[in-house]
Amino acid sequence: MDTLEIIIKLLIAVLIGGIIGAEREYHNKSAGLRTLMLICLGSALFTMFSMEIGSRTSPDRIASNIVTGIGFVGGGVIFMGGTGIYGVTTAATIWVTAALGMGVGAGHQYIALGGCIVLVGVLNAFTAIEDWIDKINRLHTYKITCPYHDQVFEKYETLMKQYHLSFRKSKQTRNHTTFSATWDAEGSMKNHNAFIRHMLNEQEVERFEY
């Protein structure tokens, strides 16, 4: 492998990582421009070293461990939020970026560039689809605190039904004269917003979290 070929591979790896990283950076994701550039470059380097160092015995020995190692990096961007697990798409993007870097290092630059275009297209196209799905059905967690009395929350559950929200009560707490309950409710964004506006004007409610 001559010097010019090595330089071209490294530049292509940086370019691919930069394109994907710029898309993630634009959407304010945890793994951004520099991170994905380094992942793609590192994967290309490890693959080239593996092919050179292990050329006589096992040329894939070093490169094969990229798949395992990159899993730890991807796992670091996944976290639990209030309504679910976040960062899975970014973790998958890291995984695919490493694969593209390996492709560049192995000499499949055109396949890697094509994969980069497909990846960016998927990230952008499916973001629009996910936004549309989120408008017609999304999950909200509501916590209502008000003075305690018999059947205290039946009124609000009836209200959720009126606004076409399907719900599940997950937690109840009584503290002296007040009573709190939490619901996980599903429905369209329009129905959630209508329910929230109604609840913000409820005089009996002491605390409303949404």
Automatic annotation (TrEMBL):
Ranges that cross the membrane: 6-22, 31-50, 62-80, 110-129
Keyword presence, Ribonucleoprotein: no
Pfam families the UniProt entry points to: MgtC
Q: Which keywords annotate this record?
A: Cell membrane, Membrane, Transmembrane, Transmembrane helix
Name this protein carries in UniProt: MgtC/SapB/SrpB/YhiD N-terminal domain-containing protein
Q: The organism sits in which domain of life?
A: Bacteria
Is Protein transport a UniProt keyword of this protein? no
